[in-house]
Amino acid sequence: MLPRCFAMATANYQEIANKLINVDVLPQGEGTLFREMAGYRNRLTHFYHEVSYEGLCQISCKQLDSITAYPGWLLEWVE
Predict the structure, then answer these.
(1) In the Cβ-directed half-sphere of 60, how many Cα atoms lie within 13 Å?
(2) Mind listing the pLDDT tens digit of every residue in the chain (79 residues)?
C-alpha cells in the first residue's frame, strides 16, 4: 500500500489535476486535459441528462490515446 504522500484536500474533482501538476506527477498539457476530463466526469455523474451521444462519442474517439496514457504516467511517477 502506498503512503499518503501529499495529504492535500481538494474542493472538487477538477482541482486534482492542478495538484498533480504542482507536484510534477503530470506535465502541464496532460494536467489540463485531465482537468477537462474531470469536468466531463462531473457532467456524467451529476448532469447526465445533458450528455449527448455525439459529444460522448467525440471524446471517446478523439481523446482515447490520452485517456489510456494516464495509467502509464502515474506508474512512471510511482516507480
Answers:
(1) 7
(2) 445 566 777 788 888 888 888 888 888 887 888 888 888 888 888 888 888 888 888 877 877 777 777 778 778 877 7
Report how far residue 49's alpha carbon sits from residue 52's, in angstroms, rounded to the nearest whole number. 8
Q: Look up the domain containing 27 and give its range.
A: 15-78
Count of structural domains, the chain: 1
Q: Quick check: is 10 in a domain?
A: no
Find all residues with CB under 8 Å of 16, minimum gap 6, and list them: 10, 34, 38
**pTM given for the model:** 0.62
